[in-house]
Design goal:
The structure holds two protein chains of two kinds.
Chain A (H helix, E strand, L loop, with lengths): L11 H28 L4 H12 L3 H41 L1 H30 L10 E8 L3 E3 L3 H10 L3 E14 L5 E8 L3 H5 L5 E2 L15 E4 L1 H8 L9 E4 L2 E8 L13 E4 L17 E6 L5 H18 L16 E7 L7 H35 L1 H9 L4 H36 L3 H6 L18 H28 L2 H5 L7 H37 L10 E6 L11 H13 L4 E7 L10 E6 L4 H4 L2 E8 L3 H4 L4 E4 L13 E5 H7 L9 E4 L8 E7 L14 E5 L9 E6 L7 H11 L5 E6 H8 L1 H35 L1 H9 L4 H30 L15 H27 L3 H7 L1
Parallel strand pairs in A: 4-9, 6-8, 15-20, 17-19
Antiparallel strand pairs in A: 1-2, 1-10, 1-11, 3-4, 3-10, 5-8, 6-9, 7-8, 12-21, 12-22, 13-21, 14-15, 14-18, 16-19, 17-20, 18-19
Helix pairs in contact in A: 1-2, 1-3, 3-11, 4-9, 4-11, 4-13, 5-8, 9-13, 9-15, 9-22, 11-13, 15-22, 15-24, 15-25, 16-20, 22-25, 23-26, 24-25
Chain B lengths: L5 E2 L4 H10 L4 E2 H11 L4 E2 L2 H13 L3 E7 L5 E7 L1 H26 L4
Parallel strand pairs in B: 1-3
Antiparallel strand pairs in B: 2-5, 4-5
The chains are: A alpha+beta, B alpha+beta.
């Protein structure tokens, strides 16, 4: 009765059938009517005419219109049947799932975690790597840098930017920008992030101010222009209560008056992603903007219509050398480390520098790892489904024997796996939500910077990670794919099983093939788990090495903070006295043991550096000797427990006007004084007035001022007593927990300097932790993924062996009845488990060797083929498999031959 | 038979067909003659309209159809009432009856 119907439209055959049947029905009707009328005495011809008349239609119309009607009816019935079948399938699947809550819960949980972790990492990849830049036509935006063979990429000076701008034809607008911190002075001083830009900055990005106006074009001059500032929406709300008349009002920055020209649109904080204020760089003095080697600006440009990215690239390569030729480097220029070699310029789409390469790599590694976890979860699901299908072999065989179409049965089974996958997808959203919350909350800008992963566009940050439409679509697609791919194979396998064999319960004939596919899956699981274990093992080893690095100081119990004295508040000559009073005041706080000052903390991804020359050598003999320059107070070495290797450090007598002295680190001694005694040597350092020469009086241990994983570079130390610098950081050694001292120290600073913002207040251990944060983050995530993979693989092996034992109860019973010892049976099952494990481990090792290569640049003092890591991880996995095999093996050994044989 | 016949109200035909089928499965022509006999020809139904009604009702699941042999060994499409059809007949039939009675009473009133 219910015909099997295809798809949602009637196929042409059943369409014709509907029409033919209607014609037959109509013909029958007419014949019946005619014979009725003839029986009443009408002539056959009249009777026929009357019969047709009573139809109420002409014959032609009747045939056509009733045919249409019949076809329409068929189509509707067909559709209803499909919906009903689908409903049946879903109801059937739901009932099946509800009947096995344990199976369903495990499957949904496994998929929920697998898909959820993927969605979370996908959200991060989307926000950081994929999503379009939040500017108008972002594909037309280019970033232009200077490049040189030896020094890599470099920023622009104002004169060089101007030269480039005036000689190019590729860009509609060009702009330079730099970002930093500035003090918003006045009643309630506050340090804010700001950007210094040329007038076309907003026009290039395609951003319009929300209130007021952009920088007027008359500000586009080489210095000396009016001071104009655009403020962020957030600052406008916070400091001006969103007053509409803010335009034209003054704003005091670094004790200088700026005129507010406009308010930026909400959410826009410049390319740095943090700026509260954007000022015109042309407000600087013309002198400051005329220095061609003061390389401090980044350049962006918006391509002119019709100009391609490639054209812009080749133009930059042509203009670059001309820029270099136009501004020859002054001999021994102090402002730069750049050796006099040929420079050029390079343009690249802004989108390609959105995040640092290292960050991109880390994200992709995590994405790969999390995809493997999902793959293992899917293999496990497929395993469970195969086990179910085998358990339902009889039911399926009966259905097939009763004439159910194989297609219909496959559909039924796939519906079940699809529903499972969708339930898992639903559950995964909770995992993904939690994951994206955590990811977006870690604000790693500082973290990334000190690890050398900064750069990129600040506006592209972790705070942009959230579950959005694209993440939901991703989840849905993954869930459906998982349901289809990993449901289809077991469904096809189960319905292919031989009819006769399966009707006879207990026959192992078709079980073999299913067993083989399940074994393959277990091997795949073990292999994947080993890849993840090896990867996480390498990261953990690397992290261990990082944590064991001696950074050259002891920062336990040390609190660090910065304060910036607004320019103009203090006469330069009063600085040393100010520092002394400050140290004395903080030193008086209960719980403070030592106070010291330096200009730049360790593990800061580098500090200030310059050139050093030697009084007893011609400059050409040494080339440019680069040294890091550090201002310190006399007791800094003691406070930070930096060991004095030779000579002395600074003391009270090293003051302004006295003989200038320097302390160098061991690396500087090694590199610049090989086979010589540096003590007593005279050198010139081109900062802080030390170019006139100073004597080296001491050598101290190396301190890592760069990243934690890079060796110390040559450094020199200058005493605050002999050079003025407003930039400073306080190091306070506490008797106990340094963080507990923070409020008292802050109060002490404000007693001495009431209008000086204190910032960057952190304990030194927290800084050290920041320096290893990325490694820890990746090691923790990879470790987590590997742990999930390991437990899934163990579950998979346990499932397969338990099932095999259950199926072979009869066989085991026979073996035992024939004299096999329990130990033999135990060994047999264990052997089976270990055989799978060994094949999986072998494949996994090969795959891990190949795949962990992507980690190479992320590892510290570990090679990607580290034998210890591989041995340990393979051992762990092997033991886990052994443990997972133990329970089914014990069960097999416990089989009672009598019971087993009776049942079989 | 065909004179003084009245056109049917909308929806009435469905109820009449269901009524006919409540006696057992019938083919189209049987339904027509059943209706003609019971109403003494006063219910005027175009034979064509009957088939539209049958399609409509089959679509709605009130009836179903299948090909069978007649007593004279001829192939004909037989329609059979389904459970929803029976329910439809009960409710719609009752409301039609009420309507007809009310109509008859009103028309029987005479101005005094």
């Amino acid at each position: 009765m219910s015909r099997s119907r295809r798809l949602f439209h009637l196929d042409p055959l059943s369409r014709q059938l509907a029409r033919r049947e209607m014609r037959e029905e109509l013909a029958f009707h007419i014949e019946e009517r005619v014979s009725q009328l003839v029986a009443l005495g009408m002539s056959p011809d009249d009777a026929r005419a009357e019969a047709i008349r009573r139809l109420g239609l002409t014959w032609v119309d009747a045939e056509r219109q009733l045919g249409d009607s019949a076809e329409h009816k068929e189509r509707r019935l067909d559709m209803r049947e499909r919906v009903r079948e689908l409903g049946d399938d879903i109801r059937y699947a739901m009932r099946g799932l509800a009947n096995r809550p344990g199976f369903t819960a495990i499957a949904v949980l496994t998929l929920g975690i697998g898909i959820g972790a993927n969605t979370a990492i996908y959200s991060a990849v989307d926000a950081l790597l994929l999503r379009a830049l939040p500017f108008a036509e972002p594909g037309r935006l280019m970033d232009i840098v200077q490049t040189s063979r030896d020094d890599g990429q470099s920023a622009w000076s104002y004169p060089k930017y101007k030269f480039f701008r005036d000689n190019q034809r590729s860009y509609a607008t060009l702009a330079v920008h730099s970002s930093g911190q500035i003090i918003m002075t006045g009643a309630d001083p506050e340090r804010i992030a700001y950007e210094e830009v040329s007038t076309q900055y907003l026009a290039t990005l395609g951003v319009r101010v929300a209130h007021g106006g952009d920088f007027p074009s008359e500000l586009d001059v080489a210095g000396g222009a009016k001071r104009v500032v655009l403020i962020s929406d957030a600052l406008w709300q916070r400091r001006f209560n969103a007053a509409p008349d803010v335009v034209g009002k003054p704003l005091s920055l670094n004790n200088e008056p700026w005129e507010i020209a406009g308010v930026l649109p909400p959410g826009f904080r410049g390319l740095s992603g943090r700026a509260e204020a954007i000022v015109n760089l042309s407000a600087r003095s013309p002198d400051e903007l005329s220095e061609p080697w003061s390389l401090e600006f980044s350049m962006i440009g918006r391509l002119r219509d019709g100009v391609t990215v490639d054209q812009a690239k080749s133009e930059a390569a042509l203009i670059g050398p001309r820029v270099y030729a136009a501004f020859p480097m002054a001999g021994g220029g102090l402002s730069t480390s750049k050796a006099p070699e040929k420079w050029t310029a390079a343009a690249r789409p802004l989108n390609t520098i959105r995040v640092a390469t290292g960050l991109r790599r880390s994200l992709l590694v995590l994405f790969g790892a999390v995809a493997m976890v999902l793959l293992i979860a899917c293999v496990n699901l497929a395993n469970l489904l195969v086990a179910r299908a085998v358990a339902r072999k009889r039911e399926i065989a009966v259905r097939l024997a009763l004439g159910a179409g194989r297609a219909r049965l496959v559909r039924l089974l796939v519906t079940e796996s699809l529903i499972l996958a969708l339930l898992g997808g639903g559950a995964s959203l909770l995992v993904a939500l939690a994951g994206t919350r955590i990811l977006s909350a870690i604000n790693p800008q500082e973290t990334l910077r000190v690890q050398g992963l900064g750069g990129g566009i600040g506006a592209i940050g972790f705070e942009g990670i959230h579950l959005d439409g694209s993440a939901l679509a991703f989840t849905f697609i993954v869930a459906v794919l998982v349901g289809l791919l990993f449901g289809l194979a077991p469904a096809l396998g189960a319905t292919r099983a031989g009819l006769v064999g399966d009707l006879k319960e207990g026959s192992g004939g078709s079980g073999r093939r299913v067993g083989a596919s399940r074994r393959t899956m277990v091997i795949a699981e073990v292999a994947l788990a080993l890849v993840l274990l090896a990867g996480s093992g390498l990261m953990i080893r690397s992290l261990g090495n990082l944590l064991n690095v001696n950074p050259g100081f002891d920062g336990h119990d040390v609190l660090t903070l910065r304060l910036s004295v607004p320019p103009g508040v203090m006469a330069p000559d009063s600085m040393p006295g100010f520092y002394e009073r400050l140290q004395a005041e903080i030193g008086g706080v209960p719980g403070v043991r030592q106070v010291a000052i330096s200009d730049c903390p360790p593990l800061n991804n580098g500090c200030n550096s310059t050139i050093m020359t030697f009084a007893d050598r011609p400059q050409s003999a040494t080339g440019n000797a680069m040294v890091g320059v550090h201002w310190v107070s006399a007791n800094w070495f003691g406070t930070m427990r930096v060991p004095v290797k030779r000579g002395r450090t600074f003391n009270e007598s090293d003051r302004l006007g006295g003989p200038k002295v320097l302390v160098i680190n061991e690396e500087a001694a090694r590199r610049y004084f090989p086979g010589e005694d540096p003590l007593g040597k005279r050198v010139s350092v081109y900062q802080g007035g030390f170019h006139t020469g100073a004597e080296i009086v001491g050598i101290v241990g190396d301190v890592r001022f760069g990243t934690i994983d890079s060796l110390a570079r040559p450094d020199v130390y200058i005493s605050y007593g002999q050079a003025r610098l407003s930039r400073m950081m306080l190091f306070v050694r506490a008797a106990g927990d340094p963080s507990a001292l923070a409020p008292a120290v802050r109060a002490a600073v404000h007693r001495i300097a009431p209008h000086t913002p204190v910032y960057d207040l952190r304990a030194m251990p927290a800084r050290v932790a920041t320096a290893t944060a990325q490694s820890r983050f990746i090691a923790v995530l990879l470790g987590l993924f590997a742990a999930v993979a390991l437990s899934l693989a163990v579950m998979g092996i346990y499932g397969v062996l338990s099932f095999a034992v259950a199926q072979r109860t009869g066989e085991i019973g026979i073996r035992m009845a024939l004299g096999a010892e329990r130990v033999n049976v135990l060994a047999m099952v264990l052997r089976e488990g270990m055989a799978l494990a060994i094949v999986g481990l072998g494949i996994g090792l090969l795959a891990a060797f190949a795949l962990t290569r992507v980690l190479r640049t992320m590892l510290f003092e570990v090679t990607t083929t580290d034998p210890i890591t591989y041995a340990v991880m393979a051992g762990v996995l092997g033991l886990a498999v052994l443990a997972a095999s133990w329970i089914p093996a014990r069960r097999a050994a416990g089989v009672d031959p009598v019971v087993a044989l009776r049942k079989g | 038979m065909t004179n003084s016949s009245t056109p049917l109200l909308k929806g009435t035909l469905d109820v009449l067909v269901l009524k006919a089928l409540s006696w057992g499965p019938m083919h189209g022509f049987e339904i027509v003659t059943w209706l003609e006999q019971r109403s003494n020809g006063s219910a005027d139904v175009d034979d064509g309209a009957l088939y539209y009604a049958l399609h409509r009702m089959e679509e709605r699941g009130l009836i179903e159809s299948e090909w069978r042999l007649t007593e004279n060994n001829r192939k004909a499409r037989y329609y059979r009432m389904r459970a929803p059809g029976r329910a439809h007949l009960r409710t719609e039939g009752a409301s039609l009856e009420r309507y007809a009675r009310a109509l008859a009473e009103i028309l029987a009133l005479r101005a005094s």
